[in-house]
Amino acid sequence: MSTVSTTRAPARTVRTTDPRPRRSKRRPVRERQWPAYVFLSPWMIGAVVLTLVPMAVSLYLSFTDYNLFDPPHWVGLRNYREMLTEDPRYWRSVGTTMLYVVVAVPLKLGLALGVAMLLKSLSRGRGFYRSAFYAPSLLGASMSIALVWKALFNDGGTVAGVLDAVGIHTGGWVGNPHLAVYGVVLLTVWQFGAPMVIFLAGLQQISPDLYEAAALDGAGRRRQFMSITVPMLSPVVFFNLVLEVINSFQVFTPAFAISGGDGGPADSTMFYTLYLYERGFTASHMGYAAAMAWLLLIAVGAITLILFRTSRSWVFYADEEGR
Amino acid sequence: MVSTTHAAVGVSRPRDKGGRPPRPSRRAVLAVAAVGLSTALTGTLSACSAASGDTSGITLRFSWWGNDDRAARTEKAIRLFEKEHPGVTVRTSNGDFTSYLQKLATQAAGGGVPDVVQLDYRQISQYAGGKAIMPLDGVIEDRTIRTSDMDKDFLRTGTYQGRQFALPMGRGITGYAYDSAVYRQAGIPTPQPSWTWQDWAKANKKIAALGMKSPDGRHFTGANDGGGNEDVFETWLRGRGKNLYADQTKLGFTEDDLTAFWSFLNTLREEGAIAQARDTVQAKSTETSPIGRRLGAADFTWDAPFPGYTALLGENIHFAPVPTTGGHQGTYFKPSMLLGIGSRSKHPKEAAQLIDFLLNDPRAGDILGFSRSTPPNRKIAARVAKTLEGAEREIYDYAQTMEKYGLDIPPTAPPPGDLAIQTAFKRIHQRMIYGMATPREAAREFIDEANRELRS
Known about the structure:
heterodimer; A: mainly alpha; MetI-like fold; 14 helices; B: alpha+beta; D-Maltodextrin-Binding Protein, domain 2; 2 domains; 5-stranded mixed sheet; 3-stranded antiparallel sheet; 13% strand; globular; cell membrane (chain A); transport (chain A)
């Protein structure tokens, strides 16, 4: 389902800037559409071969006991049933992932918005700071940064040393099942640059007239923030929120690198995708892993849908004003 | 994901020259969401295997895992083989263990297992059962591969359902690396092959009572906590006359056995006699183990890595047997790795010749040395042993001593699920030492998970 909508996405996006009302009926199909498809074909072939076909195969495998060696046997809903009713690790991985999403996403977005507002008020050097804060987003997804992170938070590492000095004895975060997940959270939050840049762009597009008018009417900074910045920025907040939620559910690399690939200690960093990988490639239960991938898709899809539903009550689109 | 973000913003930007701010619309967000979601699935099944090219003559593919020393020695032996078999080219590929396993699994799925392939003990049943490697009974009967100088019981480790599918390349044995200086100081006698788990517990308490400190000021304990190590548990079990697996689908022990093992270690840990939880979870190599960090006096390990301990910690480190139950030794000679032939090999005869050369040719034996533990061919092992010294001499002598002491026959290859079960063992032990489960709860959880793994 997702691929179909992605195919159309660019066209729709362009249409939203069309001066006509959005809900107008689609224009009649034009003649000579084929040149468009010729130009699209490299992408479309890729989408079919690399996305649609693997997705279909994955859906099929999720109903089998495929183990990489023997031909897959149809087992119906067994993988799904086992996952939902018999596997305590599955639910633990769901819990760990939810905890991560619920903690990391608001922290990251809050920090991104805060820094973006500081940068906006900066009169000089904004370009420099913007790049400086953005840099971790480029680096953060890499294996090497995750390894640096691991060294920082390990027993005998810098963080443990500093905390020891102020009397908090953690013995390193990486080896402590109660703290390990927060090390990953901090690594994610540190990469707040990407949403920050988007926030900054959004902030700069709010007309200064609005603030001026509000100031004349006697609104303080706090009031201005709540009554102008928040509503005017809400589409950007929404955009960042959806992106971060989807990405966070799929977090893999930092947990893989920091735990050495086993989601440890004691499964404390065993995120959903890491567990999926372990089931598929270490334990050779490809069918089970495929079933997990589909449930993740459905769950993230559902959460995204809920976000969209609720967004109607809090996201304000300036271009929908007259509707 | 950063790129996706930009793509979406970029799409709307060119049309915005008129001044409308490029604020993402609802649909733009939806589009990006869809792209983000689809990556959830495509990541899963995108690994692929490398294929080999064809040249004139015969090309054999040979893959193994191991460190640089082993790679250099293996390459050298192969050059010698090529020289003696004109027209045969051997293409090699190697990597570290974990990525090797994953790569091989993917190759097997695509029917591309190399002609000659190094396998772990745990892979035998999976690869043999999945018809990824071929039975070798024929080439053994016609003496293309000679097995007369190898131990019959040991050869059994490469069988599956009564047929020989792989041949061991080296035989390893578990042991116990300990600091003899600390043992002397605490007044503990040199561990003998018959020393018991009770002796071991007492020794650890004595060492802890010395009140020594590690370089970073931590409490110095008697040993690492072997509770997360499936090999240690197996030795413990076999000392009591049981096995890890009754057969390919059944465990050979009960919840009570595992509870007893974990409770025993749990008490010692709580008393401070063996390594603490935070040190156990980070012990992933010789350097990060308690003994390697000078936090403890001993470590459960294997013979092949033992020379690494003396290299790191000095000549005081010696190699002792794993403790017994009433003198009944549970350790056994285990294939450290095996050689098999890919079932779709186009040149099974030449592949068999290469295997025979690596296992039985004295010159190959000299080149390979003990890089894969003790060679299974007795004559070659004895020949190579003459040149050994130091730690390598010690592990060779250790193997001789253990053989004379008398060990039970080794079990057959563990079921395919053992790779996952082994990591479960470590993980559930971690839950226990961090107080997230009692020994009995942990044992029950492990048994449930292992049974589920064996059933599927």
